[in-house]
Automatic annotation (TrEMBL):
Native species: Sporolactobacillus mangiferae
CDD domains named in the record: Mrp_NBP35 (cd02037)
Domain MIP18 family-like residue range list: 5-63
Any coiled-coil regions, as ranges: none
Gene3D superfamilies, A to Z: Fe-S cluster assembly (FSCA), P-loop containing nucleotide triphosphate hydrolases
Functional note: Binds and transfers iron-sulfur (Fe-S) clusters to target apoproteins. Can hydrolyze ATP.
Record-given protein name: Iron-sulfur cluster carrier protein
Length: 347
């Protein structure tokens, strides 16, 4: 048969939904009677919220029944202002990236089509910024083609604290990807309102902490999904990635037009796979043509922030992150230079 102490032990495991303290700490138990397994309680929560009362009732009842209670009846009341004050008041809401005083700069990375290296650029730009001493987050908003976790060799998943999602931290960069929330690499079919809701969750429910920059890897192209995401992003600055072939610039210019249409300032252009430099002879070859970056920057009236050569990242001894150019890689220097330009332009 259940006793008084068991009830107290259960209340210790149930939280006041607004104070984030357990019901024993908040002195929530105002009345208690136990008669032959029938438990009657009066519980005071910090706010008279019907939904939270119901959720609390269900949780307490289930736990008490597990302890042997035959029937549970709970009435609710509200803690007084003085009681709440004595408990330190309501905790301040954790700030979100969209809070009015948040100082995080959003840098969205876009491309006219897939496969030009947009995700590679997003990942390595994030590291470039982090190497300049900035606090950086990376949001893989390439909803349908998320590849950031694989590129960074991330195997763990975000954790949850105080009902907020904590991003996965990898080499000092905080990462959230759609890939963390789908099972077995299954395709994502969210559109329109669902997509907007999910993006909002990424901004509001993820505890990013105090970030200087959030780099966003956008879906490629200028179709519906890319447009949806563009229009749902808050004030952000955009970087457009292109390959060096002059015709590629026309395709990429459409992504630029979309940025302008959604009132996002264009920070500049990155020409990826710009040339191949032989590690043996130092000879340079323009494998994919020449001039795409200049053409695109001319069309969009902006600058070329950098030209990244064609080369796979050098594999590291102790870490697996196949898409990351680490410090000892000459391409990391190119990204450092781009990161510095981005910082200058933002400041
Ligand atoms: N400078 C580079 N040198 C060599 N390989 C590169 C370079 N940039 C990207 N790649 C490779 O090209 C492939 C496509 O890159 P990535 O996934 O970054 O492109 P993407 O534009 O994001 O594509 P999608 O939008 O379709 O996901 C990857 O295998 C990547 O490793």
């Amino acid at each position: 048969m259940i006793n008084h102490q068991q009830v107290l032990d259960v209340l210790k495991t149930v939280q006041d939904p607004f104070l984030h303290k357990n019901l024993l700490e908040t002195h929530a138990l105002k009345e208690i009677t136990i008669e032959e397994g029938h438990v009657q309680l009066m519980i005071a929560l910090s706010r008279p919220d019907r939904v939270k009362q119901m959720q609390t009732q269900v949780e307490i009842s289930a736990k008490l029944k597990e302890q042997g209670a035959e029937a549970v009846r709970i009435r609710f009341t509200v803690l007084s202002k003085e009681e709440i004050q004595r408990l330190g008041g309501f905790p301040e809401k954790m700030p979100t990236l969209l809070s009015p005083n948040a100082k995080t700069e959003f840098i969205a990375v876009a491309s006219g089509k897939g496969g030009v290296g947009k995700s590679t650029v997003s990942v390595n730009l994030a590291f470039g910024l982090a190497r300049q001493g900035k606090k950086v987050g990376l949001l893989d908003a390439d909803i349908y083609g998320f590849s950031v976790p694989d590129m960074m060799g991330i195997e763990n998943r975000p954790s949850v604290k105080n009902e907020r999602i904590l991003p996965v931290e990898r080499f000092g960069v905080k990462v959230i990807s759609m890939g963390f929330f789908v099972k077995d690499n299954s395709p994502v079919i969210w559109r329109g309102p669902m997509l907007g809701k999910m993006l909002n969750n990424f901004f509001n429910d993820v505890y990013w902490g105090d970030l200087d920059y959030l780099v966003l890897d956008l879906p490629p192209g200028t179709g519906d999904v890319a447009m949806d995401i563009h229009s749902k992003l808050p004030h952000s600055k955009e970087i457009i990635v292109t390959t060096p072939h002059p015709t590629a610039a026309f395709v990429a210019a459409r992504a630029g037009a979309m940025a302008i249409h959604t009132q996002h300032e264009i920070l500049g252009v990155i020409e990826n796979m710009a040339y191949y430099k032989s590690r043996k002879t130092g000879e340079v070859e323009y494998v994919f043509g020449k001039g795409g970056g200049d053409k695109l920057s001319g069309l969009l009236h902006t600058d070329v922030l950098g030209r990244i050569p064609l080369a796979q990242p050098q594999p590291q001894k102790d870490v697996f992150a196949p898409g990351v150019y680490f410090n000892d890689d000459p391409i990391a220097l190119v990204y450092n230079d781009i990161a510095q330009k981005v910082i200058e332009k933002c400041e």
